[in-house]
Specification:
The protein is mainly alpha-helical and 380 residues long. It is 80% helix and 6% strand. The protein has helices at residues 2-27, 39-180, 183-283, 292-307, 341-354, 363-366; strands at 319-325, 331-339, 371-376. Strands 2-1-3 form a 3-stranded antiparallel beta sheet, covered by helices on one side. Helix 2 (39-180) packs across helix 3 (183-283). The longest helix is centred in the N-terminal third of the chain and has 142 residues, at 39-180. The protein starts with a helix and ends with a strand.
């Protein structure tokens, strides 16, 4: 880049020199000199040439400035191009670096995933090996236990045979000694043998007695332990039963209290309802008074309605129930007589839920409310 700039400057300077030289050559008078040249003419020519030279020098300076401006612009353009080139190279390098980084990260991720899979395989293999070793250890322990039991039995058998053999050898030796000795020695030997037998029998009896006492003690301890466990279990069961009975009694007491509370609430509602209806009927009496039967039928419908759950689909329908009451108004039964089945089922549930219904105190009328039919219609 620097060499190109120098070449351009050299060519420009060379061209300017050529132009100046050409202009100077054009102003030179190559004709023969006159005999008597006029001084004024010479002075005028000199002035013209000097102005031209100044103009040319000024023009050359402007051209140099223009050329320098062009050179500066070219340098600036080249610098911009170089910066853009470097930016593009940096961008390409960054893309390469990002791609390389992504490839490295992907390789690391794949390596980690492969390592995880290998670790899982190793863990599974280790677990399987540990399980196999545990099974083999269990089998080996069982075989060892079996072998130990067999060895123990074999040793006991060998000890028994050895004891029998030793006893037989001892008996043979004693028999030989007794045969060789005199009768006195025989008697002494027999006495010694008897004493030894008695001693062995005593030792055996003592051992058997000790074993029996130990067995009895162990059995007693076991029985005591079982008795203690049985007593503890019986005590725990008794406590649990007492707790359950107490909880049941509390639950029954709560239920009774709730039932009594509900009964009192129903009685209070009945009294309020009778008072309200009494006021309503007394104020609404006209020339034809409402009868006691109609009044109590209205009271019964009102109380049933308090517990009656109805919906809009039951609008316009009716139900007739056959109701039986005790002398105190307790609902004994409520059976559908006619009407919509769904409506009658809900009305029957409401009637039974009321528990008691208002009943006239007048004995001449109350008998009509012991077994009667009533038609109900939901108030929607």
């Amino acid at each position: 880049m620097k060499n190109s700039t120098n070449i351009i400057a050299f060519i420009t300077a060379f061209a300017l020199h050529l132009i100046i030289g050409g202009v100077l050559l054009m102003n030179i008078d190559f004709s023969l000199p006159r005999d008597k040249p006029e001084a004024a003419s010479i002075i005028d020519a000199t002035i013209i040439n000097q102005d031209m030279l100044d103009s040319m020098a000024k023009h050359s300076e402007q051209q140099k400035q223009a050329q320098q401006k062009i050179i500066d612009q070219q340098r600036e353009l080249q610098a911009q191009q170089e910066a853009e080139k470097q930016r593009q190279q940096a961008l390409v390098q960054k893309q390469k670096d990002d791609k390389l980084k992504a490839e490295k990260e992907e390789a690391v991720r794949k390596q980690q995933e492969q390592q995880r899979i290998e670790n899982e395989k190793l863990a599974a293999a280790k677990e399987a090996e540990e399980k196999r070793q545990a099974e083999q250890a269990a089998i080996a322990a069982a075989e060892k236990k079996k072998a130990d039991e067999a060895a123990k039995a074999e040793k006991a058998k060998a000890d028994k045979l050895a004891a029998e053999k030793a006893a037989k050898a001892k008996a043979d030796k004693l028999a030989a000694e007794k045969a060789a000795k005199e009768k006195a020695d025989k008697l002494a030997a027999e006495k010694a043998a008897k004493e030894k037998a008695d001693k062995l029998a005593a030792e055996k009896a003592a051992k058997e007695k000790a074993d029996k006492l130990a067995a009895e003690k162990a059995a007693k301890e076991k029985a005591d332990k079982l008795a203690a466990e049985k007593a503890a279990k019986a005590k725990a069961e008794k406590l649990a039963a007492e707790k359950a009975a107490k909880e049941k009694a509390e639950r029954i007491a709560k239920q009774k209290a709730a039932a009594e509370k509900e009964r009192l609430r129903q009685e209070e509602l009945d009294r309020q309802m009778e008072a309200e209806f009494s006021d309503d009927f007394s104020s609404a009496r006209s020339a034809k008074q409402t009868s006691e039967i109609a009044r109590y039928q209205a009271l019964i419908r009102s109380k049933i309605s308090r517990n009656w759950k109805v919906d809009k689909s039951m609008s316009g329908q009716t139900c007739t129930l056959a109701i039986k009451l005790a002398s105190n108004g307790l609902v004994l039964s409520a059976v559908m007589s006619k009407g919509d089945q769904k409506l009658c089922d809900s009305a029957r549930r409401a009637t039974l839920q009321a528990k008691t219904l208002p009943i006239p105190k007048d004995p001449e009328i109350s008998g009509q409310f012991r077994d009667f039919d009533i038609t109900l219609e939901p108030d929607l």
